């Protein structure tokens, strides 16, 4: 295989929070075939194996990870056929939205500022500015729980707010999206406005993993967290952002434990004060 392999590799360089211990082994497959071969081989030999993209909504453990950590960013084929595009799981979602704008296709404007990969975006039904992946996805190619490759139409996937039925049930290899013809200048203008809003409202200058909690029905997690008095609170090197209370930022020395303690404290306090149970949007990866 041509893919890169590293031993005892720092997980903090594999996620946007810049947090985590050492990974026993990290593999960057260069194509879908390499990803499948290593994934299936690890399962056959009962070696722990995990798959990630750009690590934009995960919290890696301070203890590190055993086994094999696969990074999908090399699985990045992108083939256009008119308004339909077939994209590898490791392709940048933000880049795909920019590609669509340049080709004159509308439907992915919401994704321009989302930092993850196509595979991760599908699994978590990523969205922003009133749009989401489920609006444009038509088909996925996966490795199912039996280790078989299959294609699923959108109608066979259940979508929810920042989640879908593929999570923890399958490995996404590829997504197929159907867009509509539009005006490139108008599409780029919408994307520019969306990016400007993100810059004003989100702490993009510091390492973070995006929104920590999902918005409860009819309310905003950020509003509740701020109302509970957590905005600006710090534990170790982690802080509830002063710009947006639903973001936890790393000031350079934050550990996973610092972040988990903040998450636990916020969760308990908001439930006690307002009777609302916040659910996390970011995913903590257990070392076991």
UniProtKB/TrEMBL annotation:
Catalytic activity entry: UDP-N-acetyl-alpha-D-muramate + NADP(+) = UDP-N-acetyl-3-O-(1-carboxyvinyl)-alpha-D-glucosamine + NADPH + H(+)
Cellular localisation: Cytoplasm
Function: Cell wall formation.
Listed PANTHER family: UDP-N-ACETYLENOLPYRUVOYLGLUCOSAMINE REDUCTASE
Predominant subcellular localization, coarse grouping: cytoplasm
Sorted UniProt keywords: Cell cycle, Cell division, Cell shape, Cell wall biogenesis/degradation, Cytoplasm, FAD, Flavoprotein, NADP, Oxidoreductase, Peptidoglycan synthesis
GO MF annotations in UniProt: FAD binding; UDP-N-acetylmuramate dehydrogenase activity
Cellular component terms per the entry's GO annotation: cytosol
Protein name: UDP-N-acetylenolpyruvoylglucosamine reductase
